[in-house]
Write a structure and sequence with these properties.
about 375 residues; alpha+beta; Tetrahydropterin Synthase, Chain A; three-stranded antiparallel β-sheet; two-stranded antiparallel sheet; Band_7/SPFH_dom_sf; membrane
Length: about 375
């Protein structure tokens, strides 16, 4: 730690590595705290009023003398400064002045006691010479003080300016370091946030994989297996159905073929019957189908919900009229059939053709009628 003092005081540093103590008049010194000690002593000029009342001379003449003395410790004189430190260190200016005053009063009384008239005259001359010399020394000391004070002020102001600039520079450096540390802290915080976000993303991905992807994959696998089983089932069902259709088709084809062969045989037999019996077979077939024809002719009447009949009074009325209409239509069929086929049913019936047919080849006619 640095300590400074003006040109009107001196510092004495003692303690570690300071043997003998270091004496500095008007300057600065670096002190190590706790192991070194600093003390100060004033170098100001002290003006003393030395009074001696009724002091008897050698010839018994009482004299009262008042003297003015100025005392100053010369800081440049190391021996005087060391002696002053030994005698006055730790004392205030008032205490130093009191000690010097008492010492000067004692010397003044001793001098007055040995004075004669000649000595007194010589003493007055010496006093005046000493006064002049003291004034000259005081002027020199004042001049040295002013010069040192000016140099000290310049040095103090320079050091103060340097200290202020150094302080401002240190403040700027400190702010820069603080900002740098803040930025570093922000970078570290941002890195930690990024790391936490990455960990959170990883956790969410694992959670998603555990809760969604794995079940989804299991479900997909299950659905794939079900789809594969369904596909195999459909394939097997399709193959079975195809086989069934093939067998059924073969059966139906065989049935159709058999039916076709039977129908063909029947048609052959019918043709043979037609060829052999001609009009008799045709008449027999028509007689077989007459009830169906009558049913078809009367179907419109059966499906009618309401029938309104108008009569002029010259014929049947009611159900007899309707049945008569059906019978009239049926009696017109032989005539129409004769026009279409050239076969007269009445003549064939009367001539006994049907009896001859049944008598000659009844199996053929039965097959024909089927």
């Amino acid at each position: 730690m640095f300590y400074t003092c003006g040109p009107n005081e001196a510092m004495v540093v003692s303690g570690f590595c300071r043997s003998p103590p270091l004496m500095i008049a008007g300057g600065r010194v670096f002190i190590i705290p706790c192991v070194q000690q600093i003390q100060r002593i004033s170098l100001n000029t002290l003006t003393l009023n030395v009074k001696s009342d009724k002091v008897y001379t050698r010839h018994g003449v009482p004299i009262s003398v008042t003297g003015i003395a100025q005392m100053k410790i010369q800081g440049q004189n190391k021996q005087m400064l060391a002696a002053a430190c030994q005698m006055f260190m730790g004392k205030s200016e008032a205490e130093i002045a009191q000690i010097a005053l008492e010492t000067l009063e004692g010397h003044q009384r001793a001098i007055i006691a040995h004075l004669t008239v000649e000595v007194r005259t010589h003493a007055m001359q010496e006093k005046i010479s000493a006064q002049y010399k003291n004034e000259i020394d005081m002027a020199k000391a004042q001049r040295d003080y002013e010069l040192k004070k000016a140099a000290y002020d310049i040095e103090v102001n320079t050091k103060r300016a340097e200290s202020e600039m150094a302080y401002q520079l240190q403040v700027a450096k400190t702010k820069q370091c603080i900002e740098s540390e803040k930025m570093q802290v922000q970078v570290v915080e941002r890195a930690q946030q990024i790391m936490l976000q990455e960990q959170e993303i990883t956790r969410k991905e694992k959670e998603l994989e555990a809760k969604v992807k794995k079940p989804a994959e299991a479900e997909r696998y299950r659905l794939e297996k079900l789809a594969e089983a369904e596909r195999l089932k459909l394939i097997m069902e399709a193959e079975a159905e195809a086989e069934s259709i093939r067998v059924k088709g073969e059966a139906e084809a065989f049935a159709v073929e058999a039916k076709g062969r039977a129908e063909a045989e029947q048609m052959v037999k019918k043709a043979e019957a037609f060829k052999e019996y001609k009009e008799g077979a045709m008449v027999d077939m028509l007689l077989e189908k007459l009830p169906l024809m009558a049913e078809e002719i009367s179907r419109p009447l059966c499906e009618a919900k309401k029938v309104t009949m108008v009569s002029s009074g010259g014929g049947d009325v009611g159900v007899a009229k309707l049945s008569g209409e059906v019978l009239d239509i049926m009696t017109q069929l032989p005539e129409a059939l004769e026009k279409m086929t050239g076969v007269n049913i009445s003549q064939v019936t009367h001539s006994g053709t049907r009896h001859k047919i049944h008598h000659k080849n009844p199996g053929l006619i039965k097959s024909f009628l089927k």
